[in-house]
């Protein structure tokens, strides 16, 4: 292969490769905006893999669109030695808590909203580097700066107030179920084919949980037909419970969070359903159910 030569000529770049030549018009380097910098702020150091997974687990829950700008972001809330990574669109929510240590734990507490899409792109870059991620936050400059090795990403903080999400997380449950994630995911993928009805505008899956140990996932529509799948799981409940969910929310969850085992908690029909896993510490995912017609 022939070598590629690069030459600069005033505001142009010239590329030469063998008998081929190309010229590109360029802007003045002085016109490029200066990189924002935090002169003074709070800094925490984060494990690359742990923080990357926390963003992956939460970013798909963030809202899309401008109707509620605060919900398009991921909340990063530091309280002492804990950093909570949270996102919600009002219908589902993920919270992943990260334990800080050393100077990161001793620093001042903060709460900031970072655009989910931008933070997700930054994490994809950092994941290939492998080094710890530094987060420096300055409230006065409305800026969060993430650095990893020689790479630095500065992100403007979102305005708006993030909802008091702790208020909607149930603390007591009447049903507890334990499932193999792969089995439940396969059942949901199979039945979700029938979960879309363009005429009626629904995409609902029904999940029937029987204390004898049977879980039945079903869906039907006038256009597509109907389907069901049954699987075994450990279920502790005083009675059979029927829950309904938007199929997209369940598929999004299983496409992004893939532990071996899954724990399911519910306080009954009409109450938020909570998912946890013994393989993911300090994590929960919440989905609001669809109201079933009596």
Automatic annotation (TrEMBL):
<dbReference type="GO" id="GO:0003887">
    <property type="term" value="F:DNA-directed DNA polymerase activity"/>
</dbReference>
<dbReference type="GO" id="GO:0006271">
    <property type="term" value="P:DNA strand elongation involved in DNA replication"/>
</dbReference>
<dbReference type="InterPro" id="IPR046938">
    <property type="entry name" value="DNA_clamp_sf"/>
</dbReference>
<dbReference type="GO" id="GO:0008408">
    <property type="term" value="F:3'-5' exonuclease activity"/>
</dbReference>
<keyword id="KW-0963">Cytoplasm</keyword>
<keyword id="KW-0235">DNA replication</keyword>
<feature type="domain" description="DNA polymerase III beta sliding clamp central">
    <location>
        <begin position="46"/>
        <end position="164"/>
    </location>
</feature>
<keyword id="KW-0238">DNA-binding</keyword>
<dbReference type="GO" id="GO:0005737">
    <property type="term" value="C:cytoplasm"/>
</dbReference>
<dbReference type="Pfam" id="PF02768">
    <property type="entry name" value="DNA_pol3_beta_3"/>
</dbReference>
<keyword id="KW-0808">Transferase</keyword>
<feature type="domain" description="DNA polymerase III beta sliding clamp C-terminal">
    <location>
        <begin position="166"/>
        <end position="290"/>
    </location>
</feature>
<dbReference type="InterPro" id="IPR001001">
    <property type="entry name" value="DNA_polIII_beta"/>
</dbReference>
<dbReference type="GO" id="GO:0009360">
    <property type="term" value="C:DNA polymerase III complex"/>
</dbReference>
<keyword id="KW-0239">DNA-directed DNA polymerase</keyword>
<dbReference type="InterPro" id="IPR022637">
    <property type="entry name" value="DNA_polIII_beta_cen"/>
</dbReference>
<dbReference type="Pfam" id="PF02767">
    <property type="entry name" value="DNA_pol3_beta_2"/>
</dbReference>
<keyword id="KW-0548">Nucleotidyltransferase</keyword>
<comment type="similarity">
    <text>Belongs to the beta sliding clamp family.</text>
</comment>
<dbReference type="GO" id="GO:0003677">
    <property type="term" value="F:DNA binding"/>
</dbReference>
<protein>
    <submittedName>
        <fullName>DNA polymerase III subunit beta</fullName>
    </submittedName>
</protein>
<dbReference type="InterPro" id="IPR022635">
    <property type="entry name" value="DNA_polIII_beta_C"/>
</dbReference>
């Amino acid at each position: 292969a022939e070598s590629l030569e690069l030459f600069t000529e005033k505001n142009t770049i010239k590329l030469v490769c063998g008998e081929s030549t190309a010229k590109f018009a360029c802007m003045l380097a002085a016109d490029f905006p200066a990189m924002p910098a935090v002169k003074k702020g709070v800094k925490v150091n984060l494990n690359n893999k742990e923080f990357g997974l926390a963003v992956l687990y939460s970013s798909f829950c963030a809202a899309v669109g401008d109707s509620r700008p605060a919900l398009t972001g991921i909340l990063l809330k530091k309280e002492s030695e804990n950093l909570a990574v949270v996102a919600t669109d009002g219908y589902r929510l993920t919270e992943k808590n990260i334990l800080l240590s050393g100077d990161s734990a001793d620093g001042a507490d903060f709460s900031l909203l970072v655009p989910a899409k931008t933070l997700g792109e930054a994490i994809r870059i950092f994941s290939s580097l492998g080094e710890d991620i530094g987060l420096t936050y300055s409230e006065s400059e409305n800026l969060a700066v993430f650095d990893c090795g020689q790479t630095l990403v500065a992100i403007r903080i979102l305005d708006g107030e993030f909802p008091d999400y702790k208020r909607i997380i149930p603390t007591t449950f009447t049903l507890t179920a334990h499932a193999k994630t792969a089995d439940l995911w396969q059942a949901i993928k199979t039945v979700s084919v029938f979960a879309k009805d363009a005429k009626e505008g629904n995409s609902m899956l029904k999940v029937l949980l029987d204390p004898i140990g049977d879980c039945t996932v079903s869906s039907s529509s006038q256009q597509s037909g109907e389907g069901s799948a049954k699987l075994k799981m450990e279920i502790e409940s005083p009675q059979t419970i029927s829950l309904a969910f938007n199929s997209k929310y369940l598929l999004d969850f299983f496409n992004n969070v893939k532990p071996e085992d899954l724990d399911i908690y519910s306080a009954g029909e009409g109450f938020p359903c909570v998912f946890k896993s013994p393989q993911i510490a300090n994590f929960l995912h919440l989905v609001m159910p669809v109201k079933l017609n009596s």
